[in-house]
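Title: Prediction job returns without error message
Component: structure pipeline
Severity: low
Priority: P3
Assignee: unassigned

Description:
Job completed but the reporter wants confirmation the result is attached to the right record. Sequence as submitted:
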Amino acid sequence: MNNKGVQKYALVFVVLLLIIFSMYFVLGDHTVTITNGATNLTVKEDLQQIFNFTINSGDRNNITQINITLPANCTFTAGSNNTNLTTNDTSSVTTIGNIFTNTSGSGVLNSTLSWSNFTGGVMNGSHIAKFWFNATCTHPGNYPITITTLNATGVNRTNFNLQVNDTTFPVLNYGNGTTANASNQFNNINASQPSIDVNISINELFVNKITFVLWNSSGLLNITVFSLSNNYTNTTINWSIPLGIGYNEGLTYYYNVTVNDTFGNVGNLSLTSTNVTIRDNIGPHVTFVNPVGTPYRNHTGTIILNATITDRFNNVQLVLFNITNATSRTVSLLTASNRSATNWNVTLPSGNGSFPDGVYNITVIVNDTISNVNNTGVGRLFGPYSVIIDNSGPSVTLASLSATTSSLGVTITATETVSSINGACTVDRSGATITGSSTTTSTTQNITESGLDCGHSYAYIATCTNYAGKGGSSAATSFSTSDCGTSGGSSGGGGGGGSATVWSSTYIPKTEELQSGYTQKLGAKARIKLSINDQEHYVGVKSLTATSATLEVASTPVTMSLNVGEDTKVDVTNDGYYDLYAKLLSIKDGKAEVTVKTIYEKVPEAPAAEDTGETIQEGPISDIVDKGKANLTWLWVLIIVVVVVAIAWIIYANKKRR
């Protein structure tokens, strides 16, 4: 046989061998089924059930152990385990030595039932046997059961689903908020409200739907169903049915609540329906909307009387506003109009003279009725609420309080006959301020203004307002500052001096303006006032030309001349630091535009004298002069010596030529 033939037979042999091994492993697996042919197990909650399984050992020969793992909520019934293995097994010897154990009820989760025989095998050879036992499962739901078979060749696991069905009826209880009487009883009660409220507490894990039914002698009124889609599972349900307008006084209503779970169990709130009789014995409620605020609040002109009126049954019939004066005499009885659902109002024309200035009380009278019942209902009085009608403004007068060369003080007297002055008065001059306020019928406040020119007259108009919003103003009244005087003499410094300057006007900027740089247009004899280290100082224009201005810095006057664009710094406190910066920006229309700024910069030190290298002789001046004369004598001696030597040289030279 050639090599090709050998290879062919070898290939066929290998293929056959693989087929044999495959059949062994595929056909030889253990098979576990539910004996009744179902694919999953179904039992009832809290009831003992039989669990029956069939095991086919296949061609794997011995099965040495069978384990059944139960869910944690299932409890094995002791002594209920059994098998038909001795009946179906031709070799009864195989059952000898089988051991059964279980961990159910020992506190171990997922308890395991086990048949085992590691000597002769639980099932020896190819057999089909049944195994069964009893167990009780709690808590409805779906749980896994695993059956494991073992032999020398491996482990085989089979999983089944265990469905535990609910057999417990849902439990319902009344909760807080359910319509009840004073004794917290829910049935056969009288209630004074336009609705029936039910609050139900449900003890059920698998709620399918909750049904509320309401009816009376006329028939069915309402059915409300809550389903699982509303997420009302094992929780509290609130149900409120408005009865609406038009029911009969004393009518009795009935309701019932039913809960269905997903397994068909039904729970009722009670075996009989609950009844509630509705009666209207509570009158409407009134809230003042206008007028509001503190009692005796002041008003002027037309007043809109407005109230929010609510009735539990929405049966308001009549609303009256009763107006009485300080002696409790009714001066007007006005019928209100219903402007919106709960809004009622009427107009009180207090400004037409029918209501003189004074105190008035407002009382609201409300009647409600029950529809289809011929009676006058229940009358309720609300109030009184007190107001002050004041159509006249206060009387305001002005009087002088004080005067200086640069400031004025003025007294405001405001008199109010009905109500009171509402806070501080106002004044028509922007530079003036008001101090003092009062709420008495006669109030005194003060006007103060500074930075004024001396010897000038200033007019003021003060306005005061009462609590009714009516204002009264004084007549325009003029007051004058003191006549211009003179200040003390000036000392020299910076090129200044001479007689004191009489200033015509003074500007007083704020501290923060001076810190950032305050700019003002100053005519001659105008100045700016500032404070440095709690001392008053001034920067003023004494005189000016078309291109320059002479400034004076005081308290100790120092004058300087600046051209347009020039600036200067001044140490006004003599502490070695510049305190003041001034710059002349421009001159136009006879006024110098000056910027003044408070600063704090160290004054630079003066430069040291330059060293020329010359020796300066010390001693009295006469000594220095004498020493100078001595030096000249020696010079003359030297010159004479040189001349003598030169003459001698000339004579010697002439003799030598001869």
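Comment from assignee: result matches the submitted record. The chain has four helices and 47 strands.
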